[in-house]
Specification:
With 590 residues, the chain is an alpha/beta fold. It contains 19 helices and 23 strands. Among the domains are: 59 residues, no CATH class; 198 residues, no CATH class. The strands form four sheets. The chain has a 17-stranded mixed β-sheet. It is elongated. InterPro entries: F-box-like_dom_sf, F-box_dom.
Length: 590
Amino acid sequence: MAALPDSIELSATDSSPSTGRNIVLRDLRRLDPSSIPAEVLRATVDEHLALLSGSVQAIQDIAIHLRYLRNTKAPVNRLPSEVLVRVFSYSVSTSSNEDDLVSATHVCKWWREVALDYSRLWSTLSVTTLHKATTFLQRAKDSPISIVIRDSVVVHLFAPTLRRLIPRLLSLVVEVQDTESIIPIVKGLATCTAPLLETLHIVGQYRNESDRDAVYVFNTQSMLAFRSSDQMSMDAVPETPKLRHLRLNPIMPPWYCHIYSNLSVLELGSPLTRVPISELAFLRMLRQCPRLERLNLEMRLAAPFVLYDDPQRLVRLPMLSQITFHSFPHAHVARLLTHLVLPATTHYEIFGSAKDVLTQPTGPLESPARLADLKDFRMAEVLVGYPRASDILSYFFQSATLGSAGPPMTMYIPDMLGAVHDIVPAIHVGIPGSIDVLMLRGYEQGILEDLDDLDWIPVFQSLVYLRVLHLRDVGGTYALAGILKGLGPLAVNDDWERYGGSPGSGWPCPELETLELVGTRLSGDVERLIFEWLCVRADAGVALSTVMVAQVDGPSGTFLERLQELDIVVHVMDSSPEWYADTKTFTGEF
């Protein structure tokens, strides 16, 4: 610690008109009150206190000035304002903590001046308190605003300010724990002009029946407004001309509203209440978005309809890369998709309950009414036992490596499907009869061990073009026997009549050529089972030509020799066959 001075020259501090006068601090420390009359002591002390107070303030001012002079030469202050602005902008764009920007203004006077002078730094705001919001908005001046709100209480408090900001909104994200608080926001945006708005996310949650009732009433009024309004016109001037990304759940403005036009991303959800809009009205809305790139729907339309082959009813979306349906009945999805003209590279994800899947018809109709009949599928993959899931996911997409093979279709059967015996019927109605390659696998090894008594015959009887059957991680002898019995009898006491009137006549999968087993435990019992089944198929005139085994501990030499005696080509591989690598393994969450 620096030593205290013995005296202070008042002329140096400009605290006294007396020039050259000194306050001797040593003498003041040695004042003895016992030797000085009270009146003299009081006068002396008051005089020096007044002088010292002025000196202290002057010294503090000088210290501040000296620090400023020192900081002006500090390396951090040699950065031009343009560079500092870029540093601050990068910090804002990469950090979700807005306190970092506030902290930057406390580093020094220069940083604070630069930060406060660049209003766009303060134009992105996560509203947590009104005080913070007011500060940021003042510093943002007239810049376009991006706002995030994740607290229902804050929504109520901030709503009046938000309404005034609508003309300046660049992005608005509201994700809260109720639905009633977001209704005024949706109403305001539906009736106001937002010329700069590019992104709008309004997402609420159901807390109670009151929230659900409020959603139903609002969405119903939206439909009534649609019916009483003029039909949407491509020539109409939208009041959100720059809006490209729209996400609403579960509150939705009237369907004629300007926000449903010229979108690139449209995400609509109302999972627990039926949305009062017909497919016809929905198609009209999609027609307003010819450049749509992603469509995500999690709702049930209240008014299905049947459209005849009318070219004017088709909606062309040439830029759509992904479409997702959640909570739609599969038959409803299939009917809706027949009126959408999409590029071959579009990725499809269709989630549905077991009930929706199982109520589909099992045979092709004149007008497609199930997903399996929607496209000329050549490949299908079925995964059984996906954990912690309640919905069946059907996923299909165009793979560049498949060429003319067409899009593969994937079904994910959850472990919480319900009745165990619903698994095979779900697969039966879910996969198309046009495929020539089927991959059936368990989510984990042995998942199908307890399903050996399931009836697979109807599934394989519908796959009349199947050439390749790929079984992966299906388990041991019992699980494999249950599946193979669907392709032909394994014992004398099997019900041969179910496979056709005579051996080979009307048998399941008459074109089957190749059996691929991946991750199967090739015990002696499994090898005998496979050999017996191959012999039965050969005797019936529907023999296989190829057997491939991969990622197994074997097979035995005897097994390979016996297969060769049947003129079957055997391939033993360390990894899965190439065609499987071309398909997509689902990595998302239900």
